[in-house]
Specification:
It is built from no helices and 11 strands. The chain has 115 residues and is mainly beta.
């Protein structure tokens, strides 16, 4: 069994910053990648960013240059530094971990960007 717990969400003004963290625990044997998706009200879930075991990162075009993903292999954690936040970044952010062919999800943390 694998558990993922996100933290760091909250309310922030446009232009502000937040840092999300996600800790994986349980039967962690070989992590291929960790990353984040988000789901805004009335919209489909969308990819935000990921980082592979080798350190390669990928970002959605909408967050490039503003968000940075990083990982602590020793602690099995992944973080998402979000700068210059915009109202359209408002969503529930969920982290995931790929272990072999399996993907596990956290429950999500709400980020609200509003004046």
């Amino acid at each position: 069994q694998v558990q993922l717990v996100e933290s760091g969400g909250g309310l922030v003004q446009p232009g502000g910053s937040l840092r999300l963290s996600c800790a994986a625990s349980g039967s962690i044997f070989s992590i291929n990648a960790m990353g984040w998706y988000r789901k805004a009200p009335g919209k489909d879930r969308e990819f935000v960013a990921k980082i592979t075991s080798g350190g390669t990162t990928n970002y959605a075009d909408s967050v490039k240059g503003r968000f940075t993903i990083s990982r602590d292999k020793a602690k099995n954690t992944v973080s998402l530094q979000m700068n210059n936040l915009k109202p359209e970044d408002t969503a529930v952010y969920s982290c995931y971990v790929d272990l072999g062919s399996l993907r596990y999800w956290g429950k999500g943390t709400l980020v609200t960007v509003s004046p």
